[in-house]
Design a protein that fits this description.
Elements: E1 2-8, E2 11-17, H1 26-40, H2 45-52, H3 59-64, H4 72-81, H5 86-99, H6 104-120, H7 128-134, H8 138-145, H9 154-160, H10 167-179, E3 183-185, E4 191-193, H11 205-224, E5 236-238, H12 243-264, E6 312-314
Helix pairs in contact: 2-4, 4-5, 5-6, 7-11, 8-10, 9-10
C-alpha cells in the first residue's frame, strides 16, 4: 500500500493506493488514482487535466479508456499531477515508455529499465523474475543441471554445459535462480528445485522474453546439427494443411509434450540435459485468399496446391 500526499487549496489530501510497482499498465494506475481522489473529494477529470497541463477536460479520461495515448513527454507532467516524485515518477514514465515502445526489442529494453530501477531501490517488479528467467538459455539449463550435480562447484557445472560457459556465468545464474526462488539448497548444501514447472505469469512483457528464449534455443539447435547422429534426433516434414488440420496438429503437439514430460519425470535420475523444440510454422502464404480475378483449378484448389498431399519428409 502506498500513500500519496497532495496540497490542494491549503488542504492536505491523502490518497491510499497499491504501490506503483504492483502495476504494469499506466492507464490502470491513472484510473485508480482518479477513483481514489473521487471517492474522498469532488475531484473531476477537468481538474485532473488542468493540473497535468492539458487543455482538454476529458483527455485523461480518454487515455484511461484507451481512446487516447499518453506521450512519453507528457508522462512527467501527469506524474507530477498525481504527486509522484523520485523513484515512483521515473517508474511511471517507464510504464508509459514500455506501453508505446515499437517492436519487441524496444519493449524488452523498457521493461529491463523498470526492473533495474526496482532492483536499485530494493523492490521487485511484478513479472520481473519470470522475465529475467526467460531472457537466457542458461537459466533453464542450470535449473535442470544443478540439482543433478550434488557437491559440484561452478567450474564443474560450467564444463558440463553445451555450449561451454564460464564458472562466473554459472555462479551468476545460480544466484539469480536462488533469489527468484527457482532453486534452493538443502541441508547438505546441494541444489533442489522449488517447483516442477514454471508459470509464465500474466505480465505481457514475459512472453517477449520467452520468445527471445525460443530464438536462442533455435540457434542452439542449428549448432547441434554438428553433433554426431547418436547424440541428437532431428527430423521434419513439409505439409499442406487446412486451418482445421493445423489446429488439430497443435492439440496433438500439446498432448505429445505432456507425454514427453511424463516420460522424463518417471525417473529421478539425470544423465544429460536435453532441449526438445516443437515447431510448426508456415513457409507459404495462405492459398485460399486469392484475388477475385485469380482462378482455381478443377479440384477447387489454388494452382500449385496438391489435394491430399502426404507431405515431403525431411531428415
Amino acid at each position: 500500500m502506498a500513500i500519496f500526499v497532495f496540497q490542494c487549496c491549503r488542504e492536505t489530501i491523502f490518497v491510499f493506493m497499491k504501490a506503483i510497482i504492483e502495476y504494469t499498465d499506466y492507464r490502470k494506475f491513472i484510473q485508480d488514482y482518479y477513483d481514489e481522489r473521487k471517492r474522498s473529494s469532488a475531484f473531476t477529470w477537468r481538474e485532473f487535466a488542468r493540473n497535468a497541463g492539458f487543455s482538454s477536460a476529458v483527455f485523461l479520461k480518454y487515455v484511461c479508456e484507451g481512446k487516447k495515448n499518453l506521450s512519453i513527454s507528457a508522462a512527467g507532467s501527469v506524474a507530477n499531477a498525481m504527486g509522484l516524485a523520485g523513484f515512483e515518477k521515473t517508474y511511471f514514465v517507464l510504464m508509459v515508455t514500455y506501453a508505446h515502445a515499437k517492436g519487441d526489442e524496444a519493449k524488452m529494453e523498457a521493461f529491463e529499465k523498470r526492473c533495474a530501477l526496482a532492483r536499485a531501490h530494493k523492490v521487485r517488479v511484478l513479472g520481473g523474475e519470470e522475465f529475467d528467467y526467460y531472457k537466457s538459455w542458461k537459466n533453464p539449463l542450470l535449473r535442470e543441471l544443478a540439482p543433478h550435480m550434488p557437491g559440484a562447484r561452478p567450474a564443474e557445472m560450467a564444463r558440463a554445459c553445451k555450449p561451454k560457459i564460464s564458472a562466473a556465468e554459472v555462479s551468476e545464474t545460480l544466484d539469480f535462480l536462488e533469489d527468484a526462488n527457482l532453486l534452493k539448497k538443502d541441508r547438505e548444501g546441494n541444489y533442489v528445485q522449488t517447483d516442477k514447472s514454471i508459470s509464465m505469469g500474466s505480465v505481457d512483457a514475459v512472453p517477449l522474453a520467452a520468445k527471445d528464449l525460443q530464438r536462442q534455443m533455435g540457434e542452439l539447435a542449428v549448432k547441434a546439427l554438428d553433433l554426431p547422429l547418436a547424440e541428437r534426433a532431428m527430423s521434419g516434414v513439409v505439409l499442406g494443411l487446412t486451418e482445421e488440420s493445423y489446429e488439430q496438429i497443435k492439440k496433438e503437439l500439446l498432448e505429445f509434450r505432456r507425454r514427453i514430460i511424463a516420460i522424463a519425470t518417471e525417473s529421478d535420475k539425470t544423465q544429460r540435459v536435453y532441449r526438445l523444440n516443437l515447431q510448426l510454422f508456415p513457409i507459404s502464404e495462405r492459398l485460399d485468399k486469392c484475388e477475385e480475378n485469380e482462378k482455381v483449378d478443377e479440384s477447387g484448389c489454388h494452382p500449385g496446391l496438391v489435394p491430399g498431399s502426404a507431405g515431403s519428409r525431411i531428415e
